[in-house]
Write a structure and sequence with these properties.
There is one protein chain. The protein is globular and about 60 Å long. It has 18 helices and no strands. It starts with 20 loop residues before the first helix and ends in a 6-residue tail after the last helix. It folds into 2 domains: 180 residues, Orthogonal Bundle (Tetracycline Repressor, domain 2), CATH 1.10.357.10; 187 residues, Tetracycline Repressor, domain 2 (Orthogonal Bundle). With 407 residues, the chain is an all-alpha fold. Helix 4 crosses helix 6, helix 5 crosses helix 9 and helix 10 packs across helix 12. It holds the Pfam family TetR_N.
């Protein structure tokens, strides 16, 4: 005989809402944005990651944008707090105060490494009011560091100090752009030593770098070249997801969007072509530079010259190369990522040959930092003359080789 008690339905498990549900949602969405970018994540996907309903998600945040805004403003707020000094700092030397701040910024960046890239490349998707708040907070942090550098290097002018302040944030935050693994115990001192090398470097003097072509000096491009250039300019200005094939056709003076498809299969094909162009420019310089050099350091100096001048010549392309990788088709991503790894390895090998005290992993970190620094300086200062190519070249020399560039 069946025992009625044994056939009864199991007691219903009541799922209690965690008290910190809002914080959990913010953290999980930040991780998703960090992995896939703002446009690569939906509210439904965030709800699935949290194992909650979309309705429950919307009770805490009204939109995906609200979650995105939450994370970016959190990061900018942390940057302001990282540059604050304790009361005991009044007894410290200027160098000790700056060293304390560098430690704080480095720890902050390593702790938030999965989402640091959002602040670098996705901030343009903030709404105007939020963008101003975000920018103001980072500007405050940079201004605070700039003032500290003035006390450490009083002989520097204001432009030189602000370039170094921007550069140190760029180098430290570059760890968000790649997946090179390294223990915090090794990574933190490497970043700090690199930043101090930039602060202490002599950036004066001029170098005979390759000439930078102005837009008026370019030869009239073939139609497929014009399409690629206009597409890159639009991706740079508005972000890849916000640009349509119709926009590219109009910018290229084509009669209809269908005309674009005579040259490129899709908008994604245009993006992949831009990535190949950028990667080929860097990879193609390696063998000639190494063959013509007498030492690894000399080869690296040549590559730095070529990379900086090439990046200044095609700033929009260099920015898009970093900001839009997640939008390249998966198959193309595999090929491009392999080429990126080859380039970084070739540069890193030269770094280790010039600096035997470094491991290949440490050299990779410095190579990524060098590439990232060029993009950030170009984006921050543009063509205003504050940070010309020769100054950027000297900064990269300090990053990659750890010593000032000889005049």
């Amino acid at each position: 005989m069946i025992d009625p008690a044994s056939s009864a339905a199991p007691p219903r498990q009541v799922r209690r809402r965690p008290k910190n549900r809002r914080a959990q949602i913010a953290a999980e969405s930040a991780a998703a944005f960090g992995a896939h970018g703002y446009h690569g994540v939906s509210m439904d996907e965030i709800a699935r990651r949290l194992d909650i309903s979309s309705t429950a998600l919307y009770r805490h945040f009204p939109s995906k944008y609200a979650l995105f805004r939450e994370e970016l403003l959190r990061l900018s707020g942390l940057a302001v707090r990282a540059v604050e000094l304790p009361e005991a700092a009044v007894e410290w030397s200027p160098r000790q105060r700056l060293d304390h701040v560098l430690d704080a910024v480095i720890v902050l960046t390593i702790t938030n490494r999965p989402t640091v890239a959002l602040a670098r490349w996705e901030r343009r998707y903030l709404e105007p009011v939020d963008f101003v708040e975000f920018t103001d907070q980072f500007t405050t942090a940079i201004a605070t560091v700039r003032a500290m550098i003035r006390h450490v290097r009083p002989e520097l002018d204001g432009y030189d100090r602000v370039v170094r302040a921007v550069s140190l944030f760029a180098v430290i935050s570059s760890i968000g752009d790649h997946h090179v693994t390294m223990s915090v115990k090794a990574l933190a001192p490497l970043l700090k030593a690199t930043v101090w090398a930039m602060i202490d470097a002599d950036l004066s003097g001029e170098r005979d770098a390759a000439p930078i072509r102005g837009a008026g000096e370019r030869l009239p491009p073939f139609k497929h070249e014009l399409l690629l250039r206009k597409a890159v300019e639009l991706f740079h200005e508005h972000g890849y997801p916000n640009v349509s094939v119709e926009d590219i056709a109009v910018a290229s003076d084509l009669s209809a969007a269908s005309a674009v498809y005579r040259y490129y299969r899709s908008k994604s094909d245009l993006l992949a072509a831009a990535f190949r162009r950028a990667a080929d420019r860097v990879s193609g310089a390696i063998t000639p530079a190494v063959s013509a050099a007498n030492t690894p350091a000399e080869a690296l100096e040549t590559l730095i010259d070529l990379y900086v001048t090439g990046s200044f010549d095609e700033r929009a392309l260099t920015f898009v190369y970093y900001a839009e990788f997640s939008h390249v088709d998966r198959a193309d991503q595999v090929t491009l990522r392999h080429l990126q790894q080859v380039i970084v390895t070739e540069w890193a090998t030269l770094v280790t040959e010039a600096r035997p005290e470094l491991s290949l992993g440490e050299a990779r970190i410095l190579v990524h930092a060098s590439f990232s620094l060029v993009v950030d300086l170009g984006r921050t200062f543009g063509d205003d003359g504050i940070c010309p190519p020769d100054r950027v070249i000297r900064l990269l020399h300090a990053v990659a080789l750890g010593r000032p560039l000889p005049s």
